[in-house]
Amino acid sequence: MRNIKFIPFILIILAFAACNNQSQSVSTELAVPVSVQDIRLQGIMEFVSTTGTINATAEVVVNSEMAGDYYLQNNRATGRPFKLGDRVSAGQSIIRFENEEYLNNLAVDAVKLNLDISEQEHEKQKSLYEKGGVTLRELRNSEVAMTNARYNYENAQIQLAKMNATAPFTGVIVDLPYYTRGTRLASGTHLFSLMNYNSMYMVINLPEKHISEVKAGQDVLITNYTLPEDTLLGKVTELSPAISAETRTFPGKIEIQNQDLKLRPGMFVKADIITDKKDSTIVIPKDIILTRGRQQYVYVVGRNSAANQRWLTIGIENQNSVEVLEGLEVNDRLIIRGFETLRDNSKVRIIL
Fold first, then answer.
1. Residue 298 CB burial class (10 angstroms; 0-12, 13-18, ≥19)
2. How do strand 295-301 and strand 74-75 relate by DSSP bridges?
3. Residue 270 · residue 226 · CB < 8 Å
4. Which residues make Cβ contacts (< 8 Å) with residue 57, sequence separation at least 6?
5. 264 within domain boundaries
6. Do 201 and 186 share a structural domain?
7. How many Cβ atoms sit within 10 Å of the Cβ of residue 1?
8. Is 22 part of a structural domain of the chain?
9. Could you tell me if residue 145 is inside a domain?
10. Could you give the 3-state DSSP secondary structure of residue 162?
């Protein structure tokens, strides 16, 4: 009978314990799972972005300046005839012409001999003049004859050089029409095209609203979808002060360093002009910021694992990130996932 009296008391204790466990379970279940990120000082850049086609800073189309038999030369670097994509040096002969009639008409040897004779005659007249053997007029006439002979020889050399089509600057062959060796080509025939794209440029047109932000000398980050891991450096070199009445834009020019030749002429690129930057400031992801009216806020994990609402004052920003001037401090645990349903002082549970 004594044991029976204690049964209700035991049942009460068990029921209280069960309720307590259930309360703890409910409390645990109500804690919102979130991911956090400790705030550290870092850099941020603000951009004005645009797109455009890039071009080589140096390009030329070389045509034949005489009629002659066509002979494509060998590339010394490969030991084979030149081909598309070969790098060539300034002054290097790419194509040679042969034309006996053209050479005979130039009569280079005779012109050179006439120059030698004229120079000797001038020296002779100069010596005689010093001794009083000839007049000043005779000396000047010999000088004129020597000068004309020199011009004739130099002109012959210029005409002779036309028998070799050379690279006017160091670059890459980007167009090389095929002709059979020994084929007679007419004067003015397209021979090859050359580009130097170690440095490149792009023409830009920016909306009127950016005219006070973008300035000559600003750095530019250049990217292309075929090179997602590579960012090249450029610089704004020219800007027009005038706004187009039709498009409400103003033109400019960006020069791009391309020493490794990663970019190619004609590529379509994105240009992010750096208009402002900070090297050490509080930066947070843009997509975690919530708004209420005109105010912006985020959540951090405070005491007792509760979410604390923080109102923000924003500084510079770009497509992905913003600078926080007020509202957050270094080492705050910023909630970056699971914040969508939070309220101020909501219980949270940190997960990976």
1. buried
2. unpaired
3. no
4. 196, 197, 199, 200, 201, 255
5. yes
6. no
7. 4
8. no
9. yes
10. coil
Q: Which domain holds residue 239?
A: 47-55+196-278
Number of domains in the chain: 3
Query: Nearest Cα to 159, choosing from 114, 106, 82?
Result: 106
Q: pLDDT-derived band of residue 227, with 50, 70 and 90 as boundaries?
A: confident
Quick one: pLDDT at residue 268? 95
Q: Among 232, 259, 278, which residue terminates a domain?
A: 278
Give the per-residue pLDDT at 204: 96
pTM of the model: 0.72
- Cα distances from 178 to residues 84, 183, 188, in angstroms, run 11, 11, 15
Question: What is the distance between the alpha carbons of residues 25 and 262, in angstroms, rounded to a whole number?
Answer: 59
CB contact at 8 A, 204 and 251: yes
Which tokens sit at 122?
């001038």
Distance between CA 296 and CA 202 in Å, rounded? 38
The total number of residues shown for the chain amounts to 352
Nearest partner of 264 among 352, 183, 174, 331, judged by Cα? 174
**Distance from chain centroid for Cα 157:** 42
CA dist 96 → 80, 101, 291 (Å)? 15, 15, 72
Residue 6 lies in a domain: no
The answer to whether residue 22 scores a pLDDT higher than 60 is: no
